[in-house]
Amino acid sequence: MDDTTKCLLRRLVRRIPTQILKTTLEKWGRLTAAQEQSIDSTSSKWALTEKLLSICEENRWTLKHITELEMIYIIDNPNQGMWHAFQLMEPEDDAQSVELMQFKEQFKSHLSELARHVSVKIKKHTDEAVWIRIAWGDGFSRPNNLKPTYVVHYLQTPYVFVTRLTSKQKPLLSQALVLATRHHAIKDANLSGRKLFAIRDLLMRQYQQVFPSKFPRNLEEDQQTVLNPHIETEQAESAANRRQRACEAFGAGTLPQLQSVVYKLETKFKDHTNKTMTEREEPFRCVVKFASTSLLESLRDCACSGIASTPVTPLLSSIPLKGRNYFVITDNGPGPSSQTRQPHN
Amino acid sequence: MSLLKPFSKLPGLNTASILLVESEEQFQLRLADALVEESNVTVNVRLAKSLPLPMEHEVTRPRIDLVVFIINLTSELSFQSAEASLKYLDPGYFLGKVCFMVTNARNASAPPERLDAVRKLAASLHCALLFAEDETPDGVTNATERLLTILKVAAGLVPMATALYLSNLTRCTMPSDLDQPSFD
Q1: Rounded to the nearest 10 degrees, how much is the dihedral formed by the CA atoms of A191, A195, A196, A201?
Q2: Does B33 touch chain A (CB under 8 A)?
Q3: 3-class secondary-structure state, position A282
Q4: Residue B117 has what pLDDT?
Q5: What is the dihedral of CA B21, B22, B26, B32, to 10 degrees?
Q6: Are the CB atoms for A333 and A201 separated by under 8 Å?
Q7: Residues 6+ apart with CB under 8 A from A11
Q8: Which residues contact residue A251 at a Cβ distance below 8 angstroms, ignoring those fewer than 6 apart?
Q9: What average pLDDT score do residues A50-71 get?
């Protein structure tokens, strides 16, 4: 058993919390019943590491087996590090019929053509997601298994989620994905977050949406007749209106947990009392960031309580509408940069 | 301008009505639940976010005996909303039928200037200023009891006491100089 395998196993055991370790090992299924019994979850991490290393020697596990274990752990606990979303553009005619085996073969062959010494592992999860683990190496060194990239793609959708990708590796991965999924281009969806399922649910609209209707019927209000008849809310109608508008903009129920939204402003400074700043030709660059444990629910609360005026401004409602949390805002004018986008289109 | 008038309607028998105005709409709900538990008097509670009140309910609304402005000291918006609502009250209310209730006074993030501003406002209007603790059920009970005491007088249910008389005793005063040491 060589050093890299040992090193990877050590790192992995250190990373996995003790409570989850036993279940992860059971799922992996490469330990015999006797070996499983011999692992004592109450012992210290160091003792567990040594125990697993000795079992590893016994069973003669290779690097492949350890990377399998790592993948199982990450698939069950994906909320680590930052996930970034990408969107595939311009599908070819047969993009809708790409199925798993074809995608696997194509992706592996394209990526190995583009980058020498990559080690790729593809696994299909029960919920239709394809998980890909890539360990990158260059012409001179073996693949680095300590810093792998994880990619999640849902077949037949144009969405790809990536974590731990460097800018050098990005074009290689993009090219391989585009070719394997039969599209022509891939672009950054400008959406990132710590929770994989949250950004997936936001992009694929898997949360309860409220559609604008002329006569909204709120089912919750019917249940509120139990309220004491002596208590009466004076402005109940305007509160209900605000709530309706807020839910139309953001959705009802539990919303996907985004952590932040960033607005990069490149607009001209506008303040009549400050002549020196207003007279400048160049735009006033500034970055505004909103952060929260669950950003969309916070924004919806702001709109419900009246802190954010309703109807909700397009700056805020574009977050769920367009599924992005990074915006560049310029004035309505000829903008030279290709990244510029007006907020209301 | 639709002013809320104190004596334009007839009172109910053994009834008192209170209007709780709070920009955040949180504490008022708990207070309302506790206020209606009172058994000796029928208490009607009306909840609002700010004044003016909508015209549609004008007919069914009872005569409001006491208007309470609930201000959260950690929020500037709360203070400004309460201040802006004051002009929709008929001046007759300021003879003992208005009081201010302040929450989160002990919170470190509440700037002391805001409390001074609220004090000044209450003192200039000759209204009572109450401090309440809104996190625990005990705090809610205490606040309710104090409000009920003032409410019963304001509704005319306590013999030999009127709202104006009580307000002379309970109104907020600004200490004239805060910097000088007070022992002479």
Answers
A1: -70
A2: yes
A3: coil
A4: 93
A5: -20
A6: no
A7: A146
A8: A207, A208, A209, A210, A296, A300, A320
A9: 86
Identify whether the C-beta of residue A147 lies closer than 8 Å to the C-beta of residue A168. Answer: no
Interface subset of B 52-71, CB within 8 angstroms of A: 53-54, 57, 61
Apex A186 CA angle, A336 and A158, nearest 5: 130
User: Residue B20: its pLDDT value, please?
Assistant: 95
| Contact present, A89 and A158 (Cβ < 8 Å) | yes
Q: Are A258 and A193 in contact (CB under 8 A)?
A: yes
Name A315's Cβ contacts closer than 8 Å, sequence gap at least 6.
A263, A327, A329, A343
Reported for A302-311, long-range contacts at CB under 8 A and 24+ positions apart, including other chains, are A303/A242, A303/A245, A303/A246, A303/A249, A303/A250, A304/A239, A304/A242, A304/A243, A304/A246, A305/A242, A305/B24, A305/B25, A306/A242, A306/B23, A306/B49, A307/B77, A310/A241, A310/A242, A310/A245, A310/A246, A311/A245, A311/A249
Residue of B23, B36, B48 lying closest to A228 (CB–CB)? B36
Q: Is the dihedral of CA B102, B106, B109, B110 positive or negative?
A: positive
Residues of B whose CB is below 8 A from A227: none
- Strand-pairing partners, residue B16, are B43
3-class secondary structure per residue, A209-263: CCCCCCCCCCHHHHHHHHCCCCEEECCHHHHHHHHHHHHHHHCECCCCCCCEEEE
Count CB pairs under 8 A between chains A and B: 46
Of B25, B36, B57, the CB nearest to A230: B36
Residues sharing a CB contact under 8 Å with residue B114, sequence separation 6 or more, in sequence order = B73, B76, B79
Give A160 to chain B, closest Cα distance, Å.
41
Single out the residue of B151, B160, B149, B147 nearest to residue B16, CA to CA: B151
Sequence letter at residue A307: I
The pLDDT tens digits for A254-312 are: 999 999 999 998 888 887 888 777 777 788 888 999 999 999 999 999 999 888 888 89
Q: How far apart are CA B121 and CA A310, in angstroms?
A: 30
Quote ipTM for the complex: 0.83
